[in-house]
Amino acid sequence: MTESANHRRSTREWIVDSIVFVVAVLLGLVLYDQSQKEGISSAMLAVDFYAGMALCLTLWFRRRWPVQLALIAAVVSIFSDTASAATLILILSVAVYKPWRATLLVFAVNSISLFAYIQIKNQNDDAAIVIAATSIYVAVAGWGLYIRSRRQLLQTLRDRADRAETVAKLQAEQGQMRAREEIAREMHDVLGHRLSLLSVHAGALAYRPDASTEEVAGAAEIIRASAHQALQDLREVIGVLRAPVGELPQPTFADLPQLVEASRTAGVPIDLTLDAPGALPDHVGRTAYRIVQEGLTNAMKHAPGEKLTISVIGAPGNGLSVEVRNPAPQRRRGDGQGLIGLTERAALVEGRIEHGRTPDGEFRLFAWLPWPA
């Protein structure tokens, strides 16, 4: 809390220091006038006056060197009544700006200087002077310690408020990040699958110029319906961007056969094995649905027209295994954001994801999800 060498006084500090200096000078002059009435020699009065005024000038530096100046004041006050007010202010400054040990040291040194003052001045009422001076020292030091403790309390409260604000800001940013990630996963899973179906049908039209009118009309109708559904899904997702993440449109495990059937209608050959009797928790069933959906999307994107094998098997207490296999393409396109999203989804339900090429040349997407008994 000391003033650094490069510290610039604020307007408030300039005002306080000016008032302190003026008060010390005025009180010093009053005490000097009292000393003149005691019949002290002119030489001693001159030393008293100039030493006291010099000590008053040091008050401008009391924030930077409070202890050093207070020790000097203890020496000066032995022979200078004019320095008394400045000495008290320096004791106060030590109590405000320094730990209590420094205050105790300055108090002890000033107590010793008090006895030296009594011996030099040859005062008759020694006991009264000691009691009065000690009481004043204790009062000034106690006031300074109170000011210091209050400032420390206020600083502690400010620090706590700053930390709380920082923590709240970080939590809000993390919450926003989680919400964005969740929305990104939803948009990828929902729209990616619909657009993959569109790509399959559009590709079929492009590669079959000899298709009949009925086949072209049927494919066009499927493309129109898929595009309309994709637009509806996009509107649903965008419509809830300002709502809590939990209100995003969510599929269920019961929608899995419908998802597979829609891909079959699009011309994707699929062999589905579904054996999961029992009441599957909603969050686990939703994750299983997303895994199959991502597997279908990747198969239509990277291996169009190839047979897809899907196996969803599980039971309460044993967990749910989801496996999607298809012939692996020679070169895989994409940045893998869907698989990253699946890994995050599985981790949220304490499951795991495995994916990659198998020795027999297939791409395998496997997931194990917990299913409590």
Structure description:
With 373 residues, this protein is of the alpha+beta class. Helices cover 65% and strands 10% of the residues. It has 10 helices and 5 strands. Residues 1-5 have low confidence and may be disordered. It has 2 domains: 11-165, no CATH class; 252-373, Heat Shock Protein 90. Strands 1-2-3-5-4 form a 5-stranded mixed sheet, covered by helices on one side. It holds the Pfam family DUF7134.
What's this model, at a glance?
By secondary structure, this protein is of the alpha+beta class. It contains ten helices and five strands.
Dominant shape: rod-shaped
Q: Cα distance, first to last residue?
A: 63 Å
**Main beta-sheet strand count, sense and barrel state:** 5 strands, mixed
Low-confidence stretches: 1-5
Tell me roughly what share of residues is in helical segments. Answer: 55-70%
- For the largest beta sheet, what order do the strands appear in spatially? 1-2-3-5-4
Number of continuous helical runs: 10
Structural class: alpha+beta
What is the fold's blueprint, element by element?
Layout: H1 11-36, H2 42-57, H3 66-76, H4 84-97, H5 100-121, H6 126-207, H7 213-239, H8 256-265, E1 270-275, H9 282-302, E2 308-315, E3 319-327, H10 337-348, E4 352-357, E5 362-369
Parallel strand pairs: 1-2
Antiparallel strand pairs: 2-3, 3-5, 4-5
Helix pairs in contact: 1-2, 1-4, 3-4, 3-5, 4-6, 5-6, 6-7, 6-9, 6-10, 8-9, 9-10
Transmembrane segments: 14-32, 44-61, 67-95, 102-120, 126-147
Organism: Kribbella pittospori
Domain DUF7134: 11-151
